[in-house]
């Protein structure tokens, strides 16, 4: 690619990504701190990928996606996952209409742009699979009819990492459907002071839509145009392949800790998310720092640990950090 082309692309993306700042300003009116969570939600939105949030209750996960959907002028729906939930409660069902003597389709909460699956691990596998099918296919079948879901379509699923009683952990193949798995932490002391003050005051700002769904769809096409050099592609492949065969990359000590590594979906999502991250930084090309920034979120749910790793209290975070410190940066 000619340098002049990159300059033109850089200029185009600098102009088209201006709305990212508007979204940040709009969400900051309601959400205090949690910049990392908002950034990951936007990454999913721009790269057409779903986000799994892991964090304790009360960390504004629900409020964050609701605020973002208001700022994007999109339809929002929330499903509280419980053990007695049925697939029909999510995707919808056929309802008999006596006046017409026929069955009609009643669409479920999945028919929205932003869907919050609250505590997804509280529902059994058949409910999880109904949601994950919609995530993958971007369509829902009710009776004999198939319905395309509105675009953009983003699923934000949350799960509580502490409480395991009465939960149904997502199988690895299902977790892999999420582009990002973000771990949400507590706010700082100053941020929490501001949260308390705002709640005591009770005067919350109403979010006005600053972006239309058409802008998001246009931005997704532009994100795919972000330039990625062959050396950056090689860097992504080295990171993913080192999770499968660490010995080949001089990390033989990781061999007994990794049960399985990232699939080709990991490589695709790492490339796509790094392009979206560059777009958010108003750049027309990907740099290694983009990949390093989002690598933990893309990879942490795609590496299986052995019993030895769990016995030694070694986490996916430790393994990814070691890989990033070892694999040669272009």
Give a structural overview:
This protein folds into two domains: 19-200, P-loop containing nucleotide triphosphate hydrolases (Rossmann fold), CATH 3.40.50.300; 227-326, Helicase, Ruva Protein, domain 3. The relative contact order is 0.16. The chain contains 14 helices and eleven strands. It is globular, with a radius of gyration of 21 Å. The longest helix is centred in the C-terminal third of the chain and has 17 residues, at 264-280. The protein starts with a helix and ends with a helix. The mean pLDDT is 85. Helices cover 47% and strands 15% of the residues. It is of the alpha/beta class and 330 residues long. The strands form four sheets. A five-stranded parallel beta sheet has the order 2-5-8-1-9. Helix 3 packs across helix 11 and helix 10 (230-244) packs across helix 11 (264-280).
Properties at a glance:
330 residues; Helicase, Ruva Protein, domain 3; 2 domains; five-stranded parallel beta sheet; two-stranded antiparallel sheet; 14 helices
Topology overview:
Layout: H1 3-16, H2 19-28, H3 35-47, E1 51-54, H4 61-71, E2 76-80, H5 88-91, E3 92-97, E4 102-107, E5 114-118, H6 125-137, E6 139-142, E7 145-148, E8 154-159, H7 172-175, E9 180-183, H8 189-201, H9 213-225, H10 230-244, E10 258-260, H11 264-280, H12 288-299, E11 304-305, H13 307-311, H14 316-326
Parallel strand pairs: 1-8, 1-9, 2-5, 5-8
Antiparallel strand pairs: 3-4, 6-7, 10-11
Helix pairs in contact: 3-11, 9-11, 10-11, 11-12, 12-14
